[in-house]
Amino acid sequence: MGRLTRRAFALAALSAFTTTGAAAAPVGERRGTATVEGERRATAEMRGMWLATVTNRDWPSRTGLTAAAQRAELIAWLDLAVRRRLNTVVLQVRPTADALWPSPYEPWSQVLTGTQGKAPGWDPLGTAVTEAHARGLQLHAWFNPYRVATHDDPTKLAASHPARRHPDWVVPFGGKLYYNPGLPEVRAFVEDAILDAVKKYPVDAVHFDDYFYPYPVAGQTFDDEAAYDAYGGDFAGRAAWRRDNIDKLVLETAARIKATRPGTQFGISPFGVWRNASTDSRGSDTRALQSYDDIHADTRKWVREGWLDYVVPQVYWNIGLSAADYAKLVPWWAEVAKGSRTRLYIGEALYRAGDPAQPAAWQDPAELSDHLDLAAAHPEVRGHVFFAATDVKTDRIGAMARVVADHYQQPAEPPR
Q: Under DSSP, is residue 44 helix (H, G, I), strand (E, B) or coil?
């Protein structure tokens, strides 16, 4: 995220899946500048931005550009990160079971040429790693494990696509196609496809977002009955089996990354709510969709067990929002990360700033800067990642400029 569809979903989740309204609560007095403690911590903190390629969200600006034009646009995004005093770019390199590098497992992504499987005439991931490192940036390679297509017609996939060679791997759901996480051969294939990039390039991290089992769609069921019958007999129910499938993917991927390239990190950016306290006393004071129950991702476990090098929960809500308050979720995640080996960064919804469809808090250029002030009170929070590159560039109401002015006056290295 692969995040375009989810961005629309994130707000809907607080209406379709909440028990109370999602109107913004009053926000207390704001602090306009970074704290002294925040300035001390700035010497080593994550300052990242997501660069999304799915549906050409950020890059390339459209399909069919020449190789030179694609490369020039990519370089411009890296230069933008430097100008904004960021230190990490999270580049989406496997948006829909395809690739932005020459992969023996999957076809070239259609976001490059407009035709899935058609070579673009250059190596985007290889170039991104080289050029990012030349600018002092980390390059985190962002993979979507199970999404096959943003449509549900297998005949639109390249003839060589693994989903066409193995139609039994694929589940149509919600107008899209997904690999079935319940099949061991799917999990092995997904890991192999990801590890190919790790073997070939010195990426600084492998990065997943929040797409594991798909988000719920009213009136629809993810049809994994046959896989559950074959492999789910040892579990209390299908939900427990599904969570175990995702646990296996995370744990195995982590081990294989370390075995392949020990210096490469593994990070995940999950939906910002694990479980609500009304469901589980260990959960957050929220009333929202629950990743544990709804997409079968036990994100808290991954952090507590130390399976991840870093976690970036998407805390995409404003301070004071009744259903999911930024000021309550950040302390909750800080407590989860406390004492673990997993570094905590916070995913920030820059794309909401200045959007007239968003609550009043997002019309205030200081909202995001206040997020960083609030997070600075928690030593477990080691930085922030902003969605997404286009919004870093356009910066509708100057919210990103305010963050830079208040918090990023001095350069910072990402934590290691």
A: strand
* 239 located within any domain: yes
Strand 170-173 and strand 147-149: pairing? unpaired
Regarding beta strands 147-149 and 176-179, do their DSSP bridges make them parallel or antiparallel, or are they unpaired? antiparallel
pTM to 2 decimal places: 0.90
CA 135 to chain centre: 23
What is the distance between the alpha carbons of residues 323 and 119, in angstroms, rounded to a whole number?
Answer: 46
Angle at 248 between CA 247 and CA 252, to 5 degrees: 120
Q: 266 is written with which tokens?
A: 């593994």
DSSP H stretches of helix in 173-325: 184-200, 225-231, 238-260, 291-294, 299-304
| Contact of 162 with 134, CB cutoff 8 Å | no
Residue 72: domain span: 4-146+184-407
Instruction: Decide: 169 and 163 in contact? Cβ < 8 Å.
Output: yes
Q: Among candidates 397, 290, 391, which has minimal Cα distance to 349? A: 391
Q: What is the pLDDT of residues 273-319, one digit of tens each?
A: 999 999 999 999 999 999 999 999 999 999 999 999 999 999 999 99
CATH of the domain at 268: 3.20.20.80
In a domain, 154, yes or no: no
Tens of pLDDT, residues 56-106: 999 999 999 999 999 999 999 999 999 999 999 999 999 999 999 999 999
Question: Which residues, other chains included, contact 405 with Cβ-Cβ below 8 Å and sequence gap of 6+?
Answer: none
Question: How does DSSP assign 45-96, residue by residue?
Answer: -EEEEEE--GGGSSSSSSTT--HHHHHHHHHHHHHHHHHTT--EEEEEEESS
Average pLDDT, the chain: 91
The answer to the question of residue 415 being in a domain is: no
**What are the φ and ψ backbone dihedral angles of 26, each rounded to 5 degrees?**
-60, 145
How many distinct structural domains can be found in the chain? Answer: 1
CA distance 38 to 35: 5
160 within some domain: no
CA distances from 160 to 97, 119, 137, 157, 394 (A): 12, 13, 35, 8, 38
